[in-house]
Amino acid sequence: MFNNLETLYRPCTIRKLMLRNRIVMPPMSTNFGTEDGYVTQRQIDYYRERAKHVGMVIVEASYVEPRGKALKYQLSIASDEYVVGLRELADAIKLQGARAAIQLNHAGRAARPELMGCPPVAPSMIPMPEAPWGHAGTGVLPRALSKDEIKNIVQQFAEAAERAKRAGFEGIEIHAAHHYLLAQFLAPHSNRRVDEYGGNLENRARFLIEILHAIKDSVGDDFPVWVRINGKEYGIEPGISLEESKKLAALLEREGCDAIHVSAFVWGRRIVVPPMNESRGSMADLAAQIKSVVNIPVIAVGRIDPETGERILREGKADMVAMGRTLIADPDAPIKPKDERVPCIACMHCIERVARRNLPLECTVNPWVGREAELGKLLGRVDQPKKVVVIGGGVAGMQASLVAARRGHKVILYEKKRLGGLLHLAAMPPHKRALKDLISYYEAAIKKEKNIELRLEEATPQAVINLNPDLVIIATGSSSYIPEIKGLEKLPHFTSDDVLLSKAEIGRNVVVVGRGLIGFEVALYLSAQGRNVKIIEISPKVLGDASDVEYMVLTSLALERGIDWFTSARIKEVTEHHVTIINGHGKEHKLSADTVILATGRIANDKLYYELRGKIFRVYNVGDSLSPRKIINAIHEASILATSI
Predict the structure, then answer these.
(1) What is the pTM of this model?
(2) Is 645 helix (H, G, I), strand (E, B) or coil?
(3) Low-confidence ranges of the chain (pLDDT < 50)
(4) Domains plus CATH for the chain?
(5) With the C-alpha atoms ordered 376, 377, 379, 380, is the resulting torsion angle positive or negative?
(6) What is the DSSP string of 55-70?
């Protein structure tokens, strides 16, 4: 393996379970199961692909009883009928050389009443506060568990563990992190009990310890069992503190726990899964604190790629590292050099799909997630290679070129400026620097691909016709839309593209005329430079085209930086020093301004497409040149088209 990653690839053990390397695929819900909780072939194929190069796979949270179900398509391990499917899943993982483990969970008050047909249960009758991505359980009054019910759930965990062992899993993780039942017992804000399960930390941990003991009794003392905990809770008081988590970790070790998997939880306007504005390995310091008080292995998590994982291990912050979204984006990431690896850009689309919308897992940069069984057919070499001309070196054009070339087609890729297109602009705001990794990946891949001829020049209709291609793919992107605004000429005004390309001389007081995500991101970019920024949004809500996760992350940043925004607003007039707007209630506001930035949407650059139609037999339009949208649309559309050639 790579010399600079030697620590990452050293074997390690949990209890007596030997792992071939220190990479763990953590439990991440996929919504690939059935509504009844059964394993599907799609799920097996997904895990098989990601087990190829890791030391251990921890299968996603599986509920131990129906009242603990958090997601519509969540896996169940609540009765023997699920063992057959789980055995097929465990076998698929182990055949790839990885160890197979499974996470056992009960959602508690985070369970969805509409899935259970009854109110959720919890340590106390306290509704869940505002949770990330607007969890559906928020505000529902749970029923406090009786002591007999607690004992029953302990037994259900033990029985689920025995099923897991019978299914061939080699380790069990108890989910006592995030905002689920065991974490609810551990957290003072959600546990107000006055019996032996409430009060001090030892009492609040009693339920978890009883489950640990019951599982050990069920599967045998030598069978590895460990716990995932919150190193800390953020955004709520009284939450789980780091000091309490250290005491909990030491207690768990004394009681027979074989490892600690350290996560965290954030309430309110941020989320626990690090988005692209947070650095890689941002939760590793929590793992380091836990490791300082225990002798059992510690697993760190939090936007970790191989290089980050190596650094964490070398610094002694953890014994193993969990790579989740890294493996979703590229299952072969552990064996690829950095410049050949499809990078996770931490866009949160996967989280949004599964946790918020109850839809099957998708990945922005990996269009093949959930289609692993079809990869041989989709990406197989063609019998009759074609000459393919791709015009535009943005994300859609690069993706179409790569997929087509890797299937054996001869590709001529035109780009009149530089590879990357609008990705270069998208990567300019400080919170989106992760997109530079995607640009670097595409640049390196295009240059290495022998079946791609890159022409850094403008493609004219006649030049394309002269090539006599079998088909042409137009991926010429989009341009800024400029609306008519009364008096706009009286103030310096620029487009969002001008700002990001440093073509604008911008004053201190800036009014961004925004339309959705682009305007908001430009406002954040300018505020980071110390400018006073206000956003004018014609829609009733800012970021109407953003996901819930994007909305939460970006509005949090805007509030931190003092950015004001006006919704359902329109500009009445621009004068030499002001922008006068009318808000949704018909009230006028005069805003001081010395610069206006127009982020009022984009229009497709589809001229070349229409010029070539009828002159070349097969002409296709993809990405923004078809309709301006997001990166995921460009990558997925281009991939589908390139696999159909």
Answers:
(1) 0.94
(2) coil
(3) 133-137
(4) 3-372 (3.20.20.70), 381-480+604-643 (3.40.50.720), 488-600 (3.50.50.60)
(5) positive
(6) SEEEEEEEESSGGG--
